Amino acid sequence: MNKNKENNHPENNNEPNQDPSVKGQVEELLDDAIEEVEQQQDEEGTLSETEQLKNHLEKEKDKFLRLFAEFENYKRRTSKERLELFKTANQEVMTAMLPVLDDFDRALVEINKAKDKNLLKGVELIHNKFKETLKNKGLEAMNTEKGETFDADIHEAITQIPAPSEKLKGKIVDVVERGYKLGERIIRFPKVVIGQ
């Protein structure tokens, strides 16, 4: 019985006098299915192309954001460097003036010993004006006191001597030359003598 059903089915019938309308319908259905699959593939190709464009756009956007962030960092860094440069631009001049300031300090000590009031007053005025001018340009004296703990990061030890007392072992016994800062940068380390 199944055999008869198979023979009666138009697709499985190999007889030459097949109904042309059925054959045409089958071919038409197959053509429609093929066209539908091709259309689906075209739409998928278009979608994937759109997705590719979206991916490309995302990559470009990411690249732009990274470049923008890098540029902002560059601007911040250069403005910070420029600010630091302005603060320390006169470092060379200040360093050259420090021996003159030291000579003024020594001269004041010696003039004070001579007890000439007019000379002392005149030199003090010049000394104070000179110090204030340098201070206004950013120069700041470092306060280093006897008895402070020696710190290699901010002091320069020129020699060690036996400590006069137990309390001064490893500490500053004498300050030979005052240190100076320009802004936050040390331009001359204080020269000190350490007790051992």
From TrEMBL:
Give one GO biological process term: protein folding
Q: Which UniProt keywords apply?
A: Chaperone, Cytoplasm, Stress response
GO molecular function list:
adenyl-nucleotide exchange factor activity; protein homodimerization activity; protein-folding chaperone binding; unfolded protein binding
Primary location recorded for the protein, binned into one broad class: cytoplasm
Q: Where is the composition biased (Acidic residues)?
A: 28-46
Where is the protein found, in the record's own terms? Cytoplasm
Task: Tell me the first and last residues of the signal peptide.
Answer: none
Which InterPro entries does UniProt cross-reference here?
GrpE (IPR000740), GrpE_CC (IPR013805), GrpE_head (IPR009012)
- Among its keywords, does the record have Chaperone? yes
**CDD domains of this UniProt entry?**
GrpE
Domain of life per record: Bacteria
Q: Where is this region: Disordered?
A: 1-53
Query: Record's family?
Result: Belongs to the GrpE family.
Q: Give the multimer and partner information.
A: Homodimer.
Purpose: Participates actively in the response to hyperosmotic and heat shock by preventing the aggregation of stress-denatured proteins, in association with DnaK and GrpE. It is the nucleotide exchange factor for DnaK and may function as a thermosensor. Unfolded proteins bind initially to DnaJ; upon interaction with the DnaJ-bound protein, DnaK hydrolyzes its bound ATP, resulting in the formation of a stable complex. GrpE releases ADP from DnaK; ATP binding to DnaK triggers the release of the substrate protein, thus completing the reaction cycle.
Name the record gives this protein:
Protein GrpE
Q: What is the lineage of its organism?
A: Bacteria, Pseudomonadati, Bacteroidota, Flavobacteriia, Flavobacteriales
